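One-letter codes give the sequence; the integers encode the fold. A sample entry reads:
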Amino acid sequence: MPRGEKSKYTDKQQHKAEHIEQSYEQKGVPKDEAEARAWATVNKQTGGGERKGGSGRAKSETAKRADRKDSAYRAAKARSGDAPNQRPARTTRSGSTSLTELTRDELMQRARERDVRGRSTMRKDELIKALS
């Protein structure tokens, strides 16, 4: 069962969680497990409930979009039976759209290719921002 107060979530997030939960239940997942998975998915995709103030790190819309696309890609692969729980090797990941999944070295290489100024002193999150 999911922990925590859910009143801080937007109506859209709550609706999404209900929809995901129903989908899991139709697949035969027990209700408590389906609910926990649904909220975990909503949290990953949207960064959790509504927050006031500046606590925590916010994901950029680009990063969220890329994560959703990557998640949909993995789900489609799982449905088709292609390596359901395995990620592709790092060397074959050049087609990935999510910069957040790349290592700092890989980001640095992309920044070098695009001739991003000041890249040598940038941290990973700064490189992601510069490449987005």
